[in-house]
Amino acid sequence: MSTKEPKASLLVVDDEKHQRESLAMILEDEGYRVTAAADGREALAKAAEIRPEVVLTDLKMPGLTGMDVVKSLSSLSDGPLAPKVILVTAHGSVERAREAHHLGAFDYMSKPVVADELLFRVERAVEAFRLTEKAVRLERRLKHDGLEAIVGESAAMRDLFRLVEKIAPTNSTVLIRGESGTGKELVARAIHARSHRSGKPFFALNCAAIPETLLESELFGHERGSFTGADARKIGLFEAASSSTLFLDEIGDLSLPLQGKILRALQEKEVKRVGGTETVPVDVRVVAATNRDLESMMKSGQFREDLFYRLNVIPVDLPPLRERASDIKALVGRFLEKANASHGTAVNSVSPEAMDLLVRHPWPGNVRQLESLVERAVLLCEGIVIGPQDLPADVRLRTAPSVRPYGFDIPIDGIDIEEFERQLIVQAMEKTGWVIAKAARLLGLTYRTLQYRLEKLGLKKPA
Predict the structure, then answer these.
(1) 208 — alpha (psi -120 to 50), left (phi > 0) or beta?
(2) What separation in angstroms does the CA of 452 have from each of 39, 177, 312, 317?
(3) For position 353, what pLDDT does the model report?
(4) Cα end-to-end distance, the chain, whole Å
(5) Could you read off the pLDDT of 385-431 as tens digits, one per residue?
(6) Phi, psi at residue 198, to the nearest 5°?
(7) Of 100, 155, 215, 293, which sits with the fewest C-beta atoms within 10 Å of its C-beta?
(8) Residues 109 and 121 sit within 8 Å (Cβ to Cβ)
(9) Residue 395 · residue 401 · CB < 8 Å
């Protein structure tokens, strides 16, 4: 018997002991891990236990036939990940084997079995199973990491989906901007899932979560002995993520020296490990994200202008939840399902009164805050419907925003809404000395939204 590591898990089914042992011996000598079964019922029981990649079964057997095994494996297994079945049949039963092929058998061969033919057909079946397995796993990951993971039907989210579809196949760097909790990593994962790099793992790093002294090693790696505690060589994320996507969250928190090193890695497509002398070529697509005002940081010398323009090849702006209230109902539904699955609860809906409170809430913590609140409500709910009493006090007591507290009432002959918007924006800009970031906060807008409206209305700082 071979001492090589098993190539694949196989199940051999035949009611004739000599034939069963002969097939098993040929396959084991080739390095396969073989389990044998004497009839169809035993085969199904063992298939459920060992989950073989390929099943080799005789067609004619007492009780359950090879045809029955094919049908049962197709229905009992995990959809497309059912094992590939090769039928072994006597010369006069080839037509039955072809019929079984139409019912789901992968291949068939006639007795007497020739070793070379057997190994060829089994190798082909294993390869087909693994290709199918890879495709299924990729599809599941795409569903988990892709746009399907992002909930939204508002105009802003539809624009976002179209943008992701357009930019994902490219190799350009992407800068995702948005408030904390808006889903920047979800968007980065969706970009990766729809790119030609999706066959590789997605790598992510929160630049604000790692001490400055360790961050360089985390990004670029280090050589053994390069500093105290460096007992072995470490491969950094730029090197590990070669041919894949590296998501750098909170990019605005990087120190200036590290910004320069990341800029070099992006421009030269190579890195140097800490304590090393050799450069290592890398092929990484970087998707960066921040909730900070990088333009203001550039002006104050806190963020490198050259790095900003290198990252901002494709800008993606995520709207805060308060600007996409029409998505809240769908988000609540998704988070309700997730919380029930996680905690084994059976809360199935939210009352109209509670939903109205959720829609009217300003959500300073955005989607992340909404998800936490729904999970809390599910755990506190005593029935199957979340009501206002299950929501936090700050959500229950908040009233809908109104323009009346600001001393304005719509005149009977109406208003020019564009002129009204212009006056509000001009007033906010004047109050803040024409600093866009500060004016955006006064108006409850994102930096990019206000910048867009300034351009749309043709507003510029007076000379």
Answers:
(1) alpha
(2) 72, 14, 16, 11
(3) 92
(4) 88
(5) 999 999 998 898 764 444 444 556 666 667 777 788 888 899 888 88
(6) -65, -20
(7) 155
(8) yes
(9) no
Residue located via tokens 């450069």: 279
Per DSSP, the three-state class of 444 is coil
Distance of alpha carbon 430 from its chain centroid, rounded? 43
Is 34 in a helix, a strand, or coil? Answer: strand
Q: Where are the alpha helices (DSSP H) in 272-416?
A: 294-299, 305-311, 328-343, 352-360, 366-380, 393-396
Is the Cβ–Cβ distance between 346 and 160 less than 8 Å? no
Q: What is the DSSP string of 164-191?
A: HHHHTTS---EEEE--TTS-HHHHHHHH
Q: What's the number of CA atoms in the CB half-sphere (13 Å) around residue 337?
A: 5
- Judged by DSSP in three states, 314 sits in strand
Whole-number Cα distances in Å, 410 to 208, 233, 404, 423, 425:
46, 69, 9, 15, 18
* CA 29/CA 14 separation, integer angstroms: 19
462 φ/ψ angles, rounded to the nearest 5 degrees? -60, 145
Distance from C-alpha of 69 to C-alpha of 39, rounded to nearest angstrom: 10
What's the rounded Cα separation, in Å, for the pair 118 and 25?
A: 12
For residue 457, the cross-strand partners are none
CB burial class (10 A; 0-12, 13-18, 19+) of residue 352?
A: exposed
Are the C-beta atoms of 126 and 161 separated by less than 8 Å?
no
CB 378 within 8 A of CB 339: yes
Dihedrals φ, ψ of 432, to 5°?
Answer: -110, 15
Q: Can you read off the two tokens belonging to residue 463?
A: 């000379």
Residue 154 carries which side chain, given as an amino acid letter?
A: S
Q: Which stretches of 90-224 are assigned E, i.e. beta strand?
A: 107-110, 174-177, 202-206, 221-222
**Dist CA 127 CA 188 (whole Å):** 32
d(CA 264, CA 254): 14
Cα 333 to Cα 182, 320, 388, 442: the distances in Å are 17, 19, 16, 32
Given a cut of 80, whether residue 2 has pLDDT beyond it is no
Residues paired with 222 in a beta bridge: 234, 274
